[in-house]
């Protein structure tokens, strides 16, 4: 990629952030619309879980393929294809006649979304080569998540109340089309110097692992053990096969050597934990505010602002801290705040009081605002630039997998706790185990962040990067320049 002027780099960043906005906005908008969709489509709790998890599951399954494909055939080309498919999927979702169709169309959306975020992050990584400038750019990237969290509930609530839940998918059309035109005009093409070969077996194993595991978790409260156990077994077999098969390939879908870097491994665990907490938090909050408190979609969106605003404000601050002081402090703040929020709900039933509910939302917003920038920066820092697409795709996969598991696990716990009891009366005690799970996720962010952000961890990252470069360049050491 040629060296760009500062203004052009900022424009590329803005275009990439537009793709993140529509992908992230889709999750927060959809959460506010869940009760309206439940009423119109006669959906169960597991049906609501699938409207969210079908999207994040396909994203998680295809992100690494999209990242490696973009490195091979061109990041701009894949990015533009993703915008076309995502926008078309949004149109189909707005026309869905029933729940099954909506789930299928959400999967179409996700195919397009899988070509957006990891590829956009790879474009940013290759555009911003200076470490500090890259960290700040990633901070802006993280702030867009805050914008989507702040705008999503309000925009979604307003659309649901005034037009209907189908309108939440219409907002993707103008943003998607504008991003497509701007990408075609202003984003330069880039690709890895040497193309990586496809890994269809690895891709199928990833799909089998994620899909079977999610199905087993979501359906566990409703289906017999004889139904869910085979899917759990398939997930286990797929995991073992993946661990055995991938190291034997010269160019695997998942380069397990990345995980020899303690910061990279830590970023993966933190991403899964943080986004599992986000998925579960949004799922529980939306159902409580509308189905238990009886608020409409717009009122529920306003109630979620105390979470969204701190996320928006803290994300760029986190990016600056990562650039100047490293990831340890932002991860510590994130872990403490998210753990405290979960404990507030688990121990003191924070949702039953306006004051504690407000405080719980603020704490979670602060924690999530601080966690995103160190995840992304740590995942790509130290990796060879030609591996940026794959490395950022693994980080993005971890986010989507975490959100998928958060909704699946917390939703399954809630469904099992509510049972056939009165929904409003049973919700708070049924949700308590879910809040404990979210508190544990926050503590995982704190603990893993502390363990993988020290000097020894950075040394493992440097050794891993050197091994990757050596493996990519077969020439003798003295012949390299």
Topology:
Elements: H1 6-41, H2 45-73, H3 75-94, H4 99-113, H5 117-127, H6 131-162, H7 172-186, H8 200-219, H9 225-245, H10 262-292, H11 297-303, H12 305-325, H13 328-348, H14 354-380, H15 388-418, H16 423-451, H17 455-472
Helix pairs in contact: 1-2, 1-5, 1-6, 1-7, 1-10, 1-11, 2-3, 2-4, 2-5, 2-8, 2-15, 3-4, 3-5, 3-7, 5-15, 6-11, 6-12, 6-14, 8-9, 8-15, 10-14, 10-15, 10-16, 12-14, 13-14, 13-16, 14-15, 15-16
What is the gist of this entry?
It contains 17 helices and no strands. The protein is mostly helical and 481 residues long. α10 packs antiparallel against α14 and α15 (388-418) runs antiparallel to α16.
Order of helices and strands: HHHHHHHHHHHHHHHHH
Report low-confidence residues grouped into runs of 5 or more.
474-481
What is the tally of helical segments? 17
Global structural class: mainly alpha
Strand share of the residues?
under 5%
Mean of the pLDDT scores? 84
State the total count of DSSP E strands. 0
Question: Helical amount among residues, as a percent range?
Answer: over 70%
Gyration radius, in Å: 21 Å
Report the span from N to C terminus: 20 Å
General shape? globular
What's the story with the biggest beta sheet?
A: none
